[in-house]
Design a protein that fits this description.
heterotrimer, A alpha+beta (472), B alpha/beta (490), C alpha+beta (316), B: 490 residues, alpha/beta, six-stranded mixed β-sheet, 16 helices, C: 316 residues, alpha+beta, eight-stranded mixed beta barrel, 11 helices, 50% helix, globular
Chain lengths: 472, 490, 316
């Protein structure tokens, strides 16, 4: 540790280099004295929450708790170990569904969320027609829980029903497992609320053919190191939320040999390979449970202000922090700012939806935008904006990820471990990339862009943490 | 409506670029729909959905579909398309990496280095930044006032644990190896180290020593509350230890109001254990004033200084003066004046809490002897501190000139880093006018500054003298001069 | 432009305004001299230049080209804490001392850091050329033997010896004298009672006198400062490191930074400084022993073996 006298002597051994925060006058007087200064662009915290922030910062547990959270998140070793039916993976029966984001009811659910639930009811045989399914929804005869409450994550609507196959991703460092459904591809798909017969046919094919084939493949190799793939994909220009090209290609490279060796019916095999090879977002549904499996061990550390989940259900945006257990802090979700497919526009867009913000929560996605400058053009920005996005995230995170390195920032580790107190102090929102869903069920993706999370949820989390804070 | 549809075989751009291009084309006046995309299955479906004709194209082709109100709009759209496609291939518009975003907290700035953090945010926010500094291994000066006591305590406990120094909260002045932090005067390096619980007190002492040719090693401000029973002198102890270990410091001065009794005993014990001699300068009734302290410090160094500089008024106005009216910018200077004046004149109306002060009954118009600290919160809520902004004093000088009866007006003028760039330019005309208006008014100025100060001390003095004031480098001398003018019976 | 300045030049800089002339100009430094005597009185340097003991240090860096418009013999008005010349006005708003104040140190402790510093110089820099080493050897031998005449003669052979703005002989002398001046008091139990050995005082006086006529004006100015223990910032930093200031990133760092000064100036200063430090240490150690052993005094000459050994071995 520091030798007290040496540090004090150092201070007096020569003109100090001064960090300044506050009144500009003193910055000026130091410049006038030809003193080397490091000015802070200080601003008051959101909602003037200084007292609450101070209570959290002064809590003797907080600093160590946040460090522990960071260590756990970055020590994670996510591996794909198999395919499990949702029934076994997350313990749901017919009539029970998981969905993306914080808790939601049918009444408050958005178009794509309802569409996905209708599709899932049809798929599970609970209803024969969309109208019947809707009636079940209206009657409240279905049980909804957030994916996050069952160790799972789901992109977009994130609807999971008992028969769906799910990727099982184990965190080898801690022994916990996270689950996610398999990616259906683009166009008309359940996760965007589509439930046409072709959508259901595809789901059945995934259940009957794709799932077993994938499981057979992974059984051939034992398990697949997903952290290594993420590391490599970041270096190849993916941010692993909106851009999964490299990761999906890497995945194909890894999975085809064991698929060939797994003794799968040749015509099925061709379909399976064509399906995963034709979907450049296939890896997203492995990246998300990787992040989820990495973040879950950081939950429930008393005093920690690190965010362990950010998620949206198409109506609300919600977050959970380590120190506040399973409590969700929510506010209305906004429509992402982005570029639209075809002649779709903002009026066609649904408010922000999906658990995919688990990527940013785990220090990937928007947080490694600097590694994927192509992404920034979704909002008409420049490559330098991608660098800025990542660089400004260091001011709201506890530390840097030792494995997820960003080449253009001299291989600096990605910013990771979002500290909700720093979000509120610096008035800096997490940079989140996303796809944009159409607001009418079944339209599918209408664009992609950047999310502006509601600041209120972070402020509320700070208030809650302050109430739980122990005095210094 | 006009539909334009063409296929550009072999042309390629990535989908994101094309989405941008589409948006630009969509924005052209008269265009109702546009899709510029690679002819993938998905995009061809989209195209069909938009009501365009079926086309025969492969995924390697670019399809351009524009629907517009008329042919002119289509032409405009295609022109825009070419421009947008050209722009999307990078080149001229690409920006450089640029600098990292400016740090928003002390932690983020400290990642780039730093020895010390100077925090001057509003008081309720200062704790967070100060803790950031300590946890990054930086010493801190908290200029901000109104920091909750519990937070001050917590900060100092954490600093002690980490072997760091917290100056303040409410530390207005510090000098570290010649670097002035907050409000500070330009002084030469030398053997005197000061631990100060008072900002203007420290400024005045450094100026007097500078005038005597004695340099300063460091001034470590500890804030007005450090020597209270609640805080127990935590920073004072750290500062004393630091100066004791500093080879450049031969004499230490501890400058404070008389501290809490228990704390005083503990601090004296600490001071006695140091190798470096400590001169106690306790500002209170019956104690040495700062001018006498400066003399003791010189004596401790084996020097015998001349009297502090002063500049007599151009013509000595012998009048029948009854009242002493002091308008101060420096809190400690005001208190020192009050202690000296109360001794000679009896009770004096003031807003400072010193023995001999009586409350203001009619604000600044309270009759009789009056010495006010215009730097107090009551006067600085709606305008800047009088060290930075002279407007309140200019107003009050005029108001005093309108008062009936003979009076001596006593003002302090504080120079140095952070202070008004040319206070005499505003005060001198006000003084000259007041003297012209009221022939029963004399003005005495206590000038706190050094020859090195950016305001040019001697020119400030000359301007004030020209206006009719007498000017004293020693605050105590200024007060005594004012008392003399009053022809006090003491 | 804001600037800080050496307090050694405060009387000139803070006094009445006088005219100086530009004596020499470089991208990182402009030297100012008294037009009547030709004596160099000040140097204005950039923040990334060398803070010489007579320097005004700008906040600007060499890349800002603060001296772009400066021509030889330009007039610069100096005084009232300002320098008005072919640049935007320079305001001195802070003072620093070129005379490092060092903490008390034991001869043994200093010896250890000197050995480390010597090894570092051997590793990082070329040895002194033989003729220069010979001349310097004569100086250290004479001084440690207490031979005043020999020491003065050695000074005469060193001042102005070498090439460049500050000839090597001057740098060696400057480092040597400054180190003895600064370290003798802090090696003594009572730092105010310490007295310089007569031979060192004679060397200091002689090098200043000879400097006026026998070397460059720039170097003569530095010799005047060195005679009273005023040195450039990297030399001061090395002295502080030698006397146990861990803040200055260790001996390696401080040596390396001093070696980067000029072409050979840094090395020459460093060699002179370390030799001076060794002399101060040995003299003090000898005094301590003579005190303890009541007359069983090893002759102070014993110093020369240690100090010159390194110099001689470096020659081979």
């Amino acid at each position: 540790m520091t030798d007290p006298t040496s540090s004090l002597q150092d201070l007096l051994s020569g003109p100090p280099q001064v960090v300044t925060a506050g009144v500009e006058l003193f910055e000026t007087t130091l410049r006038d004295q030809a003193v080397d200064i490091l000015p802070v662009e200080w601003r008051p915290p959101v909602d003037g929450l200084s007292t609450e922030l101070a209570a959290i910062v002064a809590d003797p547990r907080t600093a160590a708790a946040n460090q522990t959270a960071l260590e756990r998140i970055t020590a994670a070793e996510p591996r794909w170990v198999g395919i499990t039916t949702a029934r076994d993976a997350v313990g749901i029966e017919v009539g029970q569904f998981l969905h993306a984001g914080p808790p939601i009811t049918w009444e408050r659910a958005s178009g794509p969320m309802r569409g996905a639930l209708i599709g899932a009811m049809l798929y599970e045989g609970m209803a024969d027609t969309p109208e019947q399914a809707e009636a079940i929804g209206e009657a409240g005869d279905l049980e909804l829980s957030p994916c996050h409450s069952r160790g799972a994550v789901g992109p977009m609507a994130g609807v999971v029903s008992p028969s769906m196959p799910m990727f099982a991703v184990e965190n080898a460092a801690f022994g916990n497992t996270a689950y996610c459904t398999l990616n259906e591809g683009l166009g008309k798909v359940l996760r965007y609320g589509a439930y046409a017969p072709e959508v259901l046919d595809r789901l059945r094919w995934m259940q009957g053919v794709l799932g077993p084939a994938m499981d057979a493949a992974v059984k051939q190799i034992g398990s697949l190191d997903l952290r290594a793939m993420i590391v490599q994909a970041i270096q190849m220009g993916d941010e692993l939320h909106n851009r999964n090209r490299a990761a999906s290609a890497l995945f194909v490279r890894e999975v085809v040999p064991p698929l060939l060796e797994a003794g799968i019916d040749p015509s099925d095999l061709a379909d399976v390979v064509r399906f995963i090879n034709g979907n450049e977002h296939f890896f997203l549904n492995l990246g998300m449970p990787s992040a989820k499996a990495s973040l879950d061990p950081a939950r429930d550390i008393p005093g920690s202000s690190v965010i362990v989940a950010m998620a949206r259900n198409g109506t609300d945006f919600g977050i959970q922090t380590s120190g506040t257990g399973d409590r969700w802090f929510t506010a209305p979700a906004t429509v992402p700012d982005g570029l639209y497919l075809g002649d779709y526009g903002p009026d066609d867009a649904n408010p922000d939806i999906g658990d995919s913000t688990i990527m940013e929560t785990g220090g990937i996605g928007g947080f490694v935008m600097a590694a994927a400058p192509a992404i920034v053009r979704f909002v008409g920005g420049q490559a330098s904006d991608a660098l800025d996005a990542t660089r400004s995230m260091y001011s709201i995170t506890v530390g840097e990820h030792p494995h997820f390195q960003i080449p253009i920032l001299e291989f600096r580790g990605s910013p990771v471990g979002i500290d909700v107190t720093r979000v509120v102090r610096t008035d800096t929102l997490p940079a989140v990339n996303t796809g944009i869903a159409g607001k009418v069920a079944g339209i599918g993706q209408v664009g992609a862009g950047l999310v502006t999370p509601p600041m209120q949820v972070f402020a509320d989390a700070v208030r809650a943490l302050a109430e739980l804070a122990e005095p210094a | 409506m006009v539909d334009h549809l063409d296929i550009r075989r072999g042309a390629y751009a990535d989908s994101v670029s094309l989405m941008q291009v589409s948006r630009r084309v969509n924005d052209v006046d008269g265009v109702t729909a546009a899709l510029i995309a690679m002819a993938t299955e998905l995009n061809l479906e989209l195209l069909a959905g938009m009501g365009f004709d079926q086309i025969d194209a492969s995924a390697g082709d670019m399809v351009v579909a524009v629907r517009a109100t008329d042919d002119d709009a289509v032409t405009a759209a295609l022109t825009e398309l070419d421009a947008a496609l050209a722009a999307s291939s990078g080149g001229a518009t690409s920006a450089s990496f640029g600098d990292a975003p400016a740090p928003r907290t002390v932690r983020d700035a400290a990642a780039f280095g730093g020895d010390l953090a100077l925090i001057s945010t509003p008081g309720e926010h200062a704790y967070l930044e100060a803790v950031d500094a300590l946890r990054a291994g930086l010493h801190v000066l908290v200029f901000s006032d109104n920091v909750p006591l519990a937070q001050e305590k917590a900060l100092k406990a954490e600093a002690a644990e980490r072997g760091l120094l917290v100056m303040g909260p409410d530390a207005g002045t510090a000098i570290v190896s010649g670097v002035g932090l907050g409000f500070a005067n330009v002084v030469a390096p030398g053997p005197v180290g000061i631990v100060a619980a008072s900002g203007t007190g420290a400024q005045h002492l450094t100026c007097l020593l500078d005038d005597a040719g004695v340099g300063i090693s460091h001034v470590l401000g500890v804030g007005g509350r450090d020597l209270t029973a609640e805080i127990g002198g935590a920073s004072t102890r750290q500062a004393l230890a630091a100066l004791d270990a500093d080879p450049a410091t031969d004499v230490i001065v501890l400058l404070s109001k008389p501290p809490d009794e228990t704390v005083a005993t503990a601090i004296r014990k600490t001071a006695d254990a140091l190798d470096t001699p400590v001169v106690f300068a306790l500002l209170g009734p019956g104690q040495d004033d700062l001018t006498a302290t400066a003399r003791s410090v010189c004596a401790a160094l084996g020097r015998e200084p001349d009297d502090p500089a002063w500049w007599p008024a151009a013509d000595r106005r012998v009048g029948d003066y009854d009242e002493l009216r002091g308008l101060f910018a420096g809190g400690t200077l005001c208190q020192e004046a009050l202690i000296i004046a109360a001794d000679a004149l009896g009770p004096i109306a003031s807003n400072t809490s010193v023995a001999g002060a009586t409350p203001l009954v009619d604000g600044l118009d309270t009759p009789g002897h009056l010495l006010v600290d215009l730097g107090e919160d009551d006067y600085t809520r709606s305008r800047p501190h009088p060290m930075i902004d002279q407007s309140l004093r200019v107003e009050r000088i005029a108001a005093e000139a309108r008062r009936p009866g003979g009076r001596v007006l006593l003002l302090d003028v504080v120079l140095g880093h952070g202070a008004h760039a040319d206070p005499a330019s505003e005060l001198a005309p006000a003084i000259a006018q007041a003297i012209a208006r009221a022939d029963d008014l004399a003005v005495v100025v206590s000038l706190c500054g050094t020859q090195g100060d950016p305001q040019n001390r001697d020119r400030q003095a000359a301007a004030l003298v020209d206006a009719g004031a007498s000017v004293h480098l020693s605050n105590a001398h200024a007060v005594r001069n004012a008392i003399e003018l009053l022809g006090s019976t003491s | 432009m804001s600037a800080s300045a050496s307090s050694a030049r405060r009387p000139l800089l803070a006094g009445r305004i006088v005219d100086l002339h530009v004596a020499a100009r470089f991208p990182a430094a402009t030297y100012l001299a008294d037009p009547r005597t030709g004596r160099v009185l000040l140097v204005v340097v950039t923040a990334d230049g060398i803070a010489l003991p007579n320097a005004v240090v700008l906040a600007s860096r060499v890349g800002d080209r603060p001296f772009a418009r400066v021509r030889d013999h330009d007039v610069v008005q100096v005084g009232e804490n300002r320098l008005l010349g072919p640049w935007s006005p320079i305001v001195v708003a802070r003072w620093w001392s070129p005379r490092p104040v060092l903490p008390s140190v034991s001869p043994g402790g200093l010896q250890t850091s000197l050995d480390a510093a010597d090894a570092e110089i051997d590793r990082q820099a070329d040895a002194l050329p033989p003729d220069l080493a010979d001349r310097f050897h004569d100086l250290t031998t004479a001084v440690s033997a207490g031979d005043v005449n020999g020491a003065v003669a050695a000074v005469d052979r060193l001042v102005g010896f070498g090439t460049g703005l500050t000839p090597s002989g001057d740098d060696l002398l400057a480092g040597f004298v400054a180190a003895v001046c600064l370290l003798t008091p802090v090696l003594d139990a009572d730092r105010h009672a310490a007295v310089l050995p007569p031979a060192v005082s004679a060397v200091a006086t002689r090098m200043v006198d000879r400097g006026d006529t026998m070397t460059t004006a720039i170097s003569a100015a530095l010799l005047r400062h060195a005679a009273v223990g005023e040195v450039c910032a990297p030399a001061g930093a090395l002295l502080r490191t030698l006397t146990g200031r861990p803040a200055l990133t260790g001996t390696d760092g401080a040596v390396a930074r001093l070696l980067r000064v000029g072409a050979t100036s840094g090395r020459d200063l460093a060699v002179g400084l370390l030799a001076g430090a060794r002399l101060a240490t040995t003299l003090r150690a000898a005094t301590l022993r003579s005190g303890a052993l009541q007359g069983d005094t090893p002759p102070p000459q014993s110093f020369s073996t240690a100090a010159t050994h390194t110099l001689v071995s470096r020659r081979t």
